[in-house]
Amino acid sequence: MTVHHTAAVLSPNSQAPARVRQHQRFHIDDRGWADLAYHFIVDANGHVYEGRPVSAVGDTGTNYDPTGHFLVCAEGDFNKQAIPAAQVAAMADVLAWGAATFGVAASTIRGHRDWASTSCPGDGFYPLISDGSLQSAVEDRVAAGAPSLSVLCGDAATQRVADIEAGRI
Ligand SMILES: [Zn+2]
Hints:
Lysozyme-like; alpha/beta; five-stranded mixed beta sheet; binds zinc ion; 5 strands; globular
């Protein structure tokens, strides 16, 4: 399970849905990939956005093979900003869901920089990976039964995005 950041400062969080669309367009139009490179993206307030299907191998502009990797990306540039607690908690939720769903140990959590020449996911986030605290948070969640994942569609999804964009949540 490999953790990334988008390397684009997110502020305020109301911009998050537009940023996710922007990353998707960039990955498809400029990179020539099939979809957003990652399986999930998490914003600063802990909202989780679905990227490419988990059944599809991710993509990367760096020199590692993401085949078999569950790719979760935090929206923001953590070389320039601190990662909010709500975002870390949601990252742990998504990783715990992945660990439980696919039978993968939390000890497999790594930062992108562990696989390729990049600073991703940033000096403000990577220490939580290297010191094992993110792994511990994921293990606690898996032990407690792991979070469920429900995908919002249609009106419910439209309303959720509108609430995020209006800064209500
Ligand atoms: Zn990365």
